[in-house]
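[agent] plan:
  1. take the single chain provided in the ticket
  2. run structure prediction with default settings
  3. attach structure tokens to the ticket
  4. add a short note for the reviewer (M.T.)
[agent] executing step 1
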Amino acid sequence: MASLGLIKPRILGSTAIIADALREAISSNELPPGAPLKQDEIASSFSVSQTPVREALKLLVSEGLATLHHNRGCFVAAMSSAVARELMEFRAALEPRLAGWALDHLTERDIEQAGLVMKKIDTAASPAQRLLFATEFHTIIYARANRPFFLEQVGRARNNLNRYLLLAWRDGAFSTATQSEHQDILNLCVARDRAGLMNCIEQHIVASGDVVLRYLQALESK
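[agent] step 2 finished; step 3 output follows
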């Protein structure tokens, strides 16, 4: 019989794996808005009991990626321009601060890595990959802020936003404009221009949000 002390860590480990897989499927639209998240099917797919699945679904609900309907079950949350706007506003409030805190601690290696990730965005095979690399670009910079709570909250907002941002990354013009802004961010990091960097990141997020909102409002008007 397994030690009781090992049961909880195993459940928590399974929960994280399942939650990560479901987040990725939702973000990539493999699981579209309104899709049912059936505990028994998910448990079978991961060869686990329903306990870690139930905990994973609770996490997704807390992050706004899923909704729980009484007597009906759990479903992928609908996409909403109001939600997208608030998430973008949240990012625009926090991420410039993270960049400001990080700036003095960024190394030449960090800046080099961020530049290499920018090149990966240009050669990525799909919008989903471009979005993944764009997230990595920002994370390299923010990680040096040494603010784990802020980073966690921004990460949760991004997890919810990715399926919205994917709409924009399918547009070649958006990709070109965003890459130009990424280069501006990198240049300001090199120049150690804190005020300029914070302003640039805020404007970068606002511009991305405007594009996403136009897509969503067009979909909602149909």
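[agent] step 4 note for reviewer: Residues 81-220 form a domain with the Four Helix Bundle (Hemerythrin (Met), subunit A) fold (CATH 1.20.120.530).
[agent] ticket updated
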